[in-house]
Specification:
Largest sheet: 8 strands, parallel
CATH topology: sialyltransferase cstii, chain A
CATH architecture: Alpha-Beta Complex
Helix content: 25-40%
Radius of gyration: 19 Å
Strand content: 15-25%
Order of helices and strands: HEEEEEEHHEHEHEEHEHEE
CATH class: Alpha Beta
Oligomer: single chain
Length: about 300
């Protein structure tokens, strides 16, 4: 069945490319089985697959509804140095393979985020565990499409909040960064560098900037949710090509583009975002002692300070 569906999907994709222009190329996986709904402001509010509407949290979740400290748990090897059995964390967002931490420690993820279809295809075993949990998953329409190739909509236990790249929105033509800037004021989308597509989203309904690491996507979401202090766990970033993620070994580690995007995209985005957020009273705390984000404008903290 899966092979048959793959053949059909490839045929539909090729037909879509033939019948639609380059501005619609990012939608080639959706046709003809996906439809979306948008409100009067253009915000995504509904998603249907093969005629079945999936419930989304996009309408009910309100900007700034949360308070206090939120945690983002990424997958850098420094996670192995933290004794999570000694911590009592709340408001936790995991990204990509962070779910494996629950195999070792009694940790609960309130939120989750992934937007990389490469991770999804390579580690669908982890994705299947994530979507089976009672949590709020922030992901893209394309990632959801990939999930639905292998999981029935009725088997999704997680709640869904769909997010998009502001240049490539679902079932709409692509936009240039200048068009994004024209369509959205700075209090919605702050653009740092239009040529490289760098920026920070103050309103995730309008789009999220993807700079090469899902940790930055998660940061934008946690700020939008309203947390005034955001603690980064395992956002090491440096020397990623030679260092396995905390749940990997040298033999089974997946390839990464972090080193490629770090100097020109990831690091300048985090630095500009930290300065921007400091002005708004939001503090970014970094637990990785030797990571790329060590030092100003981030507050460095030893994980022992979180022990209660």
């Amino acid at each position: 069945m899966l092979i048959t569906r793959r053949i059909a999907n490839t045929a539909f994709k090729l037909l879509y490319r033939y019948s639609h222009g380059p501005a619609h190329r990012h939608n080639e996986r959706f046709w003809p089985h996906v439809s979306v709904e948008r409100d009067a402001r253009g915000d995504l509010t509904g998603f249907s697959y093969r005629g079945r509407a999936l419930p989304l949290a996009n309408r009910e979740m309100m900007r700034g509804a949360c308070r206090g400290t939120g945690h983002i748990i990424a997958c850098g090897p420094s996670i192995n140095d933290i004794e999570y059995d000694r911590l009592q964390l709340s408001s936790v967002m995991g990204v990509n393979g962070a779910m494996t931490l629950a195999e070792r420690h009694p940790i609960r993820f309130d939120y989750y985020c992934f937007n990389d279809t490469g991770f999804l295809r390579a580690r669908f075993d982890l994705v299947a565990r994530i979507v089976a949990e009672d949590l709020l998953l922030f992901t893209t329409p394309l990632c959801l499409w990939h999930i639905l190739q292998r999981v029935s909509p009725g088997d999704l236990r997680c709640r869904l909040f769909l997010v998009e790249n502001p240049q490539r929105r679902a079932l709409l033509p692509a936009r240039t960064m200048e068009e994004v800037r024209r369509d959205h004021p700075d209090d919605e989308l702050t653009i740092f560098d239009p040529e490289r597509g760098l920026g920070f989203s103050r309103d995730i309904r309008k789009g999220l900037f993807d700079v090469g690491t899902v940790a930055y996507t998660a940061l934008q979401i946690m700020v939008w949710l309203g947390y005034s202090q955001i603690v980064l766990h395992g956002v090491d970033l440096n020397n990623a090509a030679a260092t396995p993620r905390f749940y990997e070994t040298p033999e089974n580690r997946l390839p990464t583009t972090l080193d490629q995007y770090l100097p020109g995209h990831i690091l300048p985005s985090f630095v500009r975002a930290a300065a921007l957020l400091r002005e708004a009273g939001v503090e970014i705390v970094n637990l990785s002692p030797k990571g790329a984000l060590a030092g100003e404008p981030f507050r460095q903290l030893d994980w022992h300070a979180l022990v209660r």
